[in-house]
Write a structure and sequence with these properties.
Elements (H helix, E strand, L loop, with lengths): L11 H15 L13 H4 L8 E7 L3 E7 L13
Antiparallel strand pairs: 1-2
């Protein structure tokens, strides 16, 4: 299995796609969401910026996917710790 934290070869768009696929596959391949999940307030801040996603390791070989405020940077804001 590929190490999910070896992000040197993954660009932000591919990482977003991989997180979406992992989430869907974990839930059996599909997930029902209300239409309101795609409203502007749900997807981003009032200034028009998108929220960011954090991917961090937690106990028992699991990962936490969290919504965070978008970092104040011009680029994609990818940070590997």
């Amino acid at each position: 299995m590929t190490d999910p934290f070896d992000l040197a070869h993954i660009n932000p768009a591919d990482m977003s796609h991989a997180m979406l696929l992992a989430l869907l596959m974990h839930h059996g391949g599909s997930l029902e969401l209300p239409v309101s999940a795609f409203e502007a307030d749900a997807l981003g801040a009032g200034d028009g910026s998108w929220h960011a996603v954090a991917l961090e390791p937690i106990a028992d070989d699991t990962l936490r996917l969290s919504v965070r405020p978008r970092p104040d940077v011009d680029g994609p804001g990818v940070r590997i710790e």
